[in-house]
Amino acid sequence: MEKQNIPEPVPFKFGKKLKTYLGIAAGIGLLALLIAVFVQQLPSERIWANLWMNALMFLFLGLGALFFWTVNTLGESTWQINFQRVMESMGLTIPFAAIFFVLAFPGLKDLFEWTHTEHLDRILQEKTPYLNMPFWMVRFAVYFILWSFFAWYLRKISVKNDFEPHDKYLGRLRATSGWFIVFFAISSSTAAWDWLMSIDAHWFSTLYGWYIFSGMFVAAIAVIILITIAFKKFNILPNVNKEHLHDLGKYLFGFSIFWAYLWLSQYLLIWYSNIPEETVYYVERVNNYKTLFYMNLIINFVVPFFALMTRGSKRQPLYLAIVSLVVLLGHYLDLYLAIMPGAVGHENASIGLLEIGLPFFYLAVFLTLFFISFGKAKPVPENHPYAIESSSYENI
Amino acid sequence: MQVSQVREPLINGEKSYENITSDVMAPVRAKPGKLWFLGFGISALVMLAGFAAIAYTVWFGIGTWGVNRTIGWGWSITNFVWWVGIGHAGTFISAILLLFRQKWRTSINRAAEAMTLFAVMCAGLFPLIHMGRLPLAFFIFPYPNTRELWVNFNSPLLWDVFAITTYLLVSLLFWYMGLIPDLGTIRDRMKTLWKKKAYNFLSFGWKGSARHWQRHESMSLVLAGLAAPLVLSVHTIVSFDFATSVIPGWHTTIFPPYFVSGAVFSGFAMVLTLMIVTRRALNLQEYITVGHVESMNKVIIATGSIVGIAYITELFMAWYSGVEYERYAFINRAMGPYAWAYWIMMTCNVISPQLLWIKKLRRNLTFTFILSIFINIGMWFERFVIVVTSLHRDYLPSSWSMYKPTWVEVAIFLGTFGLFFTLFFLFIRIFPVIALAEVKSVAKSSARKFIRKSSKKSKPENE
Amino acid sequence: MKNIIYGHFTDDHDLLEAVKALQEKGIHIADVRTPFPVHGLDTVLKLRRSHLPKVAFIAGVIGAVLMFSFQYWVFTEGWPLNFGGKPYSSILSFIPATFEITVLFAAFAMGIAFLLRSNLGPGSIPDILDEEVTNDHFQIILSEKDNTLSETELAEALEATGALDVKQVNTKK
């Protein structure tokens, strides 16, 4: 292994230029929303559905990153240490996702059929012990309180070890990660039922929670890759090398396949058994969203599968960044297909200025929060007992 | 690659490369002891009894079994799924853990993969016997019969044929390719000429050339990449056997990933059962350490919890779906005539592995051994619950029925244990139980104390 | 007639140093034999990356195309049958078997290519110079044919790196 010249790390500063860019992005998003509401006067359910979709994506990035970090910690893996702070800081955006959800609350009646308690059919009446507003709200609060707590507490321990190094912190980090994973394993499924599956309130699928989780995980990895590559480029994380990108690329590749596997499992079983209660979900999507339905599969599976198959492709920062961006957009589309057919209906749903513009606002807020959190701690954890392993490994 | 000082060593004791060779080779070189002959003899006898029961079935027909028109799949398919599940650990360890750079895999992958092969062989027997006419088993392969009719590619049972066959063949390839260098090592240590020749034949003339190693590594990595989705696909397709149908309790979309997780869960339990005994018997405690057992226990708790969540998800969705048949199927599981099977499954698979959250228990060999047997039992009952409990209450109450195995079915099941252990006993005498070359490659960074032989001639300018 | 000079080390790190030292003198190394894949050796020896993954990819594509078109043919041309009201060309139904055959083709093509390319296989007789290579010897083999230096000079150069048991053999081949 040849020693590479590692440049001096540049301290991260959330500068004026960056702030201006983010401000412009946020402005574009808000403008798109205002135009949609006042100029285009789009139907209210389409507006609410968009707010809902972006809030979910906002949450997915933070939650997915937190999961990635904790699962690596728990697995005693160490290669991620050199860019661990990226994931920590992404996790800290979780509580703000709650705000975006709450902002969309006035639209719940437009989004969820089961909230119309005055005229529910027999099936929905039977579901009321689970699908009722008070219980739903309690679950909402519990998810966010616990997720935010874990994100905050794990970060706190991690940063504490920078200043007063002690082995007990790693132990505590692992133990807390364990508790988080246990809670996450349950809550990721139930949250997916609450916020996505119950849009199509009559429909059900046992796999749904895991399917949404896999998409979330891939989207989060795509963003971790994009941020890490940018930070490497500006020498904020000079210790990130091709090996880290290679491994991140493998995750993106592998879990894109995993996502496709779950997609196929769910679709194939429902298609094969051909039970009307279940097929209704796909009939709507295949008939009325034909292009998007198949594009979803191509962008999220075929593209990363062929684009990231070779070794070299994962070690080429720019190339990997482009693929990650494509996959991230792909998972937006996946979310779109999960929400719109049920919440808006094919007569009103389409991809227009609102769908393209609004994400810029959420992205800008996400990055702003991320940069603020990232700037508050050292860019790389110090005194981590395993730190050496992250800088000195090689892929075969 | 540097390894942190804090990390627990993978190999205990003071080891040099030479020590590793002689330690691992000892069982191959030594004459088998009394215990080995005893174990081998019993296994072989049980295996023969099982074959006799199979012959009995083929001669007299499936009527000798307890299955009936309502419960057409009894113990046989239960055993099939159970064995296939166990056969998932080996390739999971050698392929997926390779991709995840889990170095502890090097001490157990060889034996676990051998176990995989034997388990898949046992599994493959059951559908063949179940078809009734064993000599006509080749009917399952796609060839046009006399009416030029082909097999039904729409059927998950046929997908199974492809999946199991491919899995067996690719696992065999992966396992054997890994064995080649180690067989070369044995060849060079053998003194008698015929043994040398035999092992040279088996080792394909391995000589350890740098170019060969480079290709070998590159191949292993790609094989791992191919085997990883293959492992997932096999139990996925087994789950399709059930899930594509419209039978309540069978048709549920979570089946594919949940079956895979359950398979890895039961496979690791079996690996633990075997390795805890093997490491003692073959004196390999320094290579298969308590740390290895703990790592495997962690996989067990992860996969076991996933299985537990899947059980609860199924239960919840049965209620949430509002489908009365689905609801009945699950109430019947928990409170019907076969409730005892359901509760054995729940206790063994969901509750007992949770004890492994306690570090002391994770590192306790006796506890782990007992728990691994519990899990094996629990996972067998999971398949029993899925197969028998779901079938015995039909849509038509007039065809409701009960099922009890006959001695023939029991004998065949025990016979597969005989087959499994016979092959395993032979394996530990002929092949190295631990992947020698792979352990050597991690010895320097991961042994508790590595003895570095002073390799160079002492040169004045160096010292 | 090929004159071969060889010697060994008992540590992988020493081997790497020696290989580098020999290369600095411009000596071509015929072969290096080790008990396990030494990390970094292939870069030092400048071995080009193996093409085996490409073999696997091509064979996998062939397997996938063959299996898929075969199933498609059977159900649309060969003998179309109605199974549960599904269309004759049920692409979803063809995926599992296609996947399995893809993996099977890729894995075995690669395995066979590896053996052929490396001249390994049942019945292959290796030219073993030192039986301890499969135990703990890391052997360097030099060939007079590839180098301008004479046999004794090569042996001296190898000795100078600290190699043990430097020997010369003439193999008639």
Automatic annotation (TrEMBL), chain A:
Record flagged with keyword Membrane: yes
Signal peptide limits: none
Domain of life per record: Bacteria
Keywords (A to Z) from UniProt: Membrane, Transmembrane, Transmembrane helix
Membrane-crossing segments per the record: 21-39, 51-69, 90-108, 136-154, 175-196, 208-231, 251-272, 292-310, 317-339, 351-372
Protein name: Quinol:cytochrome c oxidoreductase quinone-binding subunit 2
Organism: Tangfeifania diversioriginum
TrEMBL record, chain B:
Pfam families the UniProt entry points to: NrfD (PF03916)
Coiled coil feature spans: none
Keywords: Cell membrane, Membrane, Transmembrane, Transmembrane helix
Transmembrane feature ranges: 35-60, 80-100, 112-141, 161-180, 219-238, 258-278, 299-320, 340-358, 365-391, 411-439
Gene Ontology, cellular component aspect: plasma membrane
Subcellular location: Cell membrane
Claim: Cell membrane is one of the keywords in the record: yes
Keyword Nucleotide-binding found: no
Membrane topology label: Multi-pass membrane protein
UniProt similarity note: Belongs to the NrfD family.
Name of the featured protein: Quinol:cytochrome c oxidoreductase quinone-binding subunit 1
TrEMBL record, chain C:
Pfam families: ActD (PF11821)
Keyword set includes Transmembrane: yes
Transmembrane segments: 55-74, 94-116
Keywords: Membrane, Transmembrane, Transmembrane helix
Full protein name: Quinol:cytochrome c oxidoreductase membrane protein
